[in-house]
Amino acid sequence: MLLTTMKTLWPLLFFLAEAHGHAALRPNFVLLMADDLGIGDPGCYGNKTLRTPNIDALADAGAKLTQHLAASPLCTPSRAAFMTGRYPVRSGMASQSRVGVFIFSASSGGLPASETTFATLLRNQGYSTALIGKWHLGLHCDNSSDFCHHPLSHGFEYFHGLPLTNLRDCKAGAGSVFSSAVRLLALVPLQVTAVALATLAALGRLGLLRVPRPVFACLLLLAAAGLGALLGFLHFFRPLNCFLMTNREVTQQPLSYDNLTQRLTADAARFIRRNADAPFLLVVSYLQVHTALFSSKDFAGKSRHGAYGDAVEEMDWSVGQIMRVLQDVGVANNTLVYFTSDQGAHVEEVSATGEIHGGSNGIYKGGKGNSWEGGIRVPGLLRWPGVIPAGLQIGEPTSNMDVFPTVVKLAGSPLPDDRIIDGRDLMPLLRGTSPRSEHEFLFHYCNFYLSAVRWAPRNSTSVWKAFFFTPKFSPPGANGCFPTQVCLCYGRFVTRHDPPLLFDLSKDPRERTPVTPTSEPRFQEIVATMERAAERHVQTVRDVPDQFSLGNILWKPWLQTCCPSSSGLSCQCDREKQDTQESR
Q1: Could you point out which of 8, 25, 122, 271 has its C-alpha 20 to 30 Å from the C-alpha of 159?
Q2: How far apart are CA 443 and CA 244, in angstroms?
Q3: Cα(406)–Cα(242) distance, rounded to whole angstroms?
Q4: Measured between alpha carbons, how far is 38 from 364 in angstroms, rounded to an integer?
Q5: Which residues form the signal peptide (predicted)?
């Protein structure tokens, strides 16, 4: 009888042991993404004056990717690619116009429901999932209660942070990203109207022209309406767009920068502690170091690089706090930690007083908003003790899209088979089972437009990069597009190249000296190969709804999210302060 029972139970016990072993092998994931941090900012990438010991410790204890690339050089499309493992043009998250990111919380564009994020797949595998910090992938579709683009609609069980993005306009006295637009669309028409009124009045007094009173009245009303609209925009923009949410509820409107990094870091720590006994995914998406720059009193004025350096060093402190919590709860050795930036540093960021508010892209040309290496080559650090060798350095081309298949496979989930996944699993490189990247070709977009192709031939150490167009830097000799604050991707703002402008990044990472048919005998063959690869890639891109169409990026009052207790547009509340007091 006992023997029969054992024979019956043995397969079940074996199955349970196997299942337990499989579950134990699944790591936790902590994915840390800085905003606008340049590859030249962390100490582990060569900076000697910014103090980033906690970020540097990730490199010492794990792998440093030296050719890690953002799929787009702008916030919103880069984050869409990171979340989905797909070029943003495939999801409609790449703009065809001047506006390349979402600038209003009450616009209807966003990451489509048809897209699958790694958070969704991990949640299906039993992971607890959270996003803390910046989202910037949309909020609503048709009404202010549908939350169709919200993180909770894309696989995250918990969200605490900023649904839009940190802007200069969010912080009193930090300036405005709309200065040029205000001058063009408001101040110039007001000046024209004022001049017209003065001219007509003068002509009337001189008896040279009889102007009916209704004309004066209409011009005055027009001027008053324009002035009212301008003042209303400036007054309401901050509370309507700069607010914090916890899940689907507004908790601070407008947001306060007081100890903001500390508050979000503490919440990340609480999430880790709550879920220490089960697999979890935590994405910490820092608001720093996007302008408006901010830091707490413990860091303000302490760095050698002004407000920018203070913000970097505070973010580094936050990384250290998160790593300490992982250690405290005993999961540090079973957690894959990844650190990166959404794109390169914003080199055009200079304050009204002339202080540089953008970071360093090291030796690389260009920055945020363009496909020169400074715009797309970003930090890439991965730590997983016992699996990823400490001090490993990888120079192969990799992408922030690679995070998707890497974490999904490690979590035990199959990849979606109904769509193209452009990312590639990083684990063969990280474990040393493959010496070469699975990316033979990578495609660099400037918003919607394919601007360059990268080719790492299997039988060569060369890394070729061919530009179909490049931005026109302004003023001449500058390393960016200062009049427009970020380089634009079309028309008179770019220079087109036929044949493509070709560089060998293995010999010229600064992209200073283009390869020519004279300097490279295989020039025509190389260019033809890259053009064919681009053609094959473009044929795989399908028409999808444009999330950056005019109708999708405009402010829509019926989509506006406000505090539950607010009425009209007077959106003000501070549940963050109340909740903090209650949690003490």
Answers
A1: 25
A2: 35
A3: 33
A4: 10
A5: 1-24
Residues of the chain with CATH 1.10.287.550: 178-241
Peptide bond into 435 cis (omega under 30): no
Nearest to 53 by CA among 318, 358, 305, 393: 318
Contact criterion met (CB below 8 Å) for 325 and 280: no
Q: What is the pLDDT of residue 493?
A: 95
Structure tokens at 329: 């709860």
Question: Looking at domain 28-167+244-439+545-559, what is its CATH homologous superfamily?
Answer: Alkaline Phosphatase, subunit A (3.40.720.10)
| Mean pLDDT, range 296-302, rounded to an integer | 95
What does the alpha-carbon distance between residue 106 and residue 145 come to, in Å, rounded to a whole number? Answer: 11
Instruction: Decide if pLDDT at 370 tops 90.
Output: yes
> Which tokens belong to 76?
């919103």
Counting every residue written for the chain, the total comes to 584
For 178-241, CATH number? 1.10.287.550
Three-state DSSP string of 493-520: HEEEEEEEEEEECCCCCCCCCCECCCCC
Residue 260 corresponds to which tokens in the numbers above? 């903001």
Task: Assess whether pLDDT exceeds 70 at residue 328.
Answer: yes
| Residues 6 or more apart in contact with residue 500 via CB below 8 angstroms | 452, 453, 466, 467, 468, 527, 530, 531
Reading across the β-sheet that carries 464-471, which strands appear in turn? 441-446, 449-455, 464-471, 494-504
Q: Where are the beta strands (DSSP E) in 89-243?
A: 128-134, 158-162
Question: What Å distances lie between residue 129 and 39, 123, 158, 278, 332, CA to CA?
Answer: 28, 6, 7, 11, 17
Cβ atoms within 10 A of the Cβ of 309, count?
Answer: 23
Residue spans in the chain of domains classed CATH 3.40.720.10: 28-167+244-439+545-559
User: Would you state the pLDDT for residue 175?
Assistant: 78
**Which of the following is catalytic: 44, 68, 75, 242?**
75
Ramachandran category for residue 161: left, alpha or beta (phi over 0 → left; psi -120 to 50 → alpha): left
pLDDT at 299 over 70: yes
Give residue-wise pLDDT tens across range 221-230: 776 776 676 6
What pLDDT sits at residue 155? Answer: 97
Q: Residue 538: what are its φ and ψ, rounded to 5°?
A: -60, -35
Q: Is 75 a catalytic residue?
A: yes
| Signed CA dihedral, 474, 478, 479, 483: sign only | negative
pLDDT (0 to 100) of residue 351? 83
Q: Give Rg (Cα) of the chain.
A: 26
Question: Residue 102: what pLDDT?
Answer: 94
Q: Is 346 a residue of the active site?
A: no
| Closest-CA residue to 388 (of 423, 424, 434, 429) | 429
Q: Name every residue whose Cβ is closer than 8 Å to that of residue 408 and which is 6 or more positions away in sequence.
A: 85, 118, 121, 122, 414, 415
pLDDT for residue 212 is more than 90: no
For residue 348, report the phi and psi dihedrals to the nearest 5 degrees. -80, 0
pLDDT for the residue numbered 580? 52
The phi and psi torsions of 424 (rounded to 5 degrees) equal: -130, 145
Q: pLDDT at position 569, please? A: 67
For 561, list phi and psi in degrees, rounded to 5.
-100, 130
Checking DSSP bridges between strand 63-65 and strand 392-394, what pairing results, if any?
A: parallel
